Amino acid sequence: MPDTPKPDPYLLSTLVCPVSGGMLRLSPQGNELVSPGARIAYPIRDGIPIMVPGEARALTEAEIAALAGRKSKRK
User: Fold this and answer.
1) Are 59 and 41 in contact (CB under 8 A)?
2) What is the mean pLDDT of residues 61-68?
3) CA distance 36 to 38
4) Which residues, other chains included, contact 57 with Cβ-Cβ below 8 Å and sequence gap of 6+?
């Protein structure tokens, strides 16, 4: 199976969530951009972030808790 193209790190650093206006994080699997503020994840298809709110999926409570845990460890 060929490697899936990865989004450009510079591009990712310039994107903000169109719903919350907040920062986005690359998911651990690298296939989604996660918006902790809006509690949603945008898919990345063929290396292109799909920043359409209707295409986003809601994060599970476990994913939200994991994000909160990672955030508190950075302090």
Assistant:
1) yes
2) 90
3) 6
4) 40, 41, 43
Distance CA 13, CA 17 (A): 11
What pLDDT is stored for residue 73 in this prediction? 53
| pLDDT of amino acid 10 | 87
**Nearest alpha carbon to residue 53 among 37, 41, 66, 68:** 41
In which domain, by residue range, is 65 found? 9-73
What sign for the dihedral angle of Cα 9, 13, 17, 22? positive
Confidence check: pLDDT of 1 > 50: no
Q: What is the CATH number of the domain that holds 55?
A: 2.20.25.10
Single-letter amino acid, residue 17: C
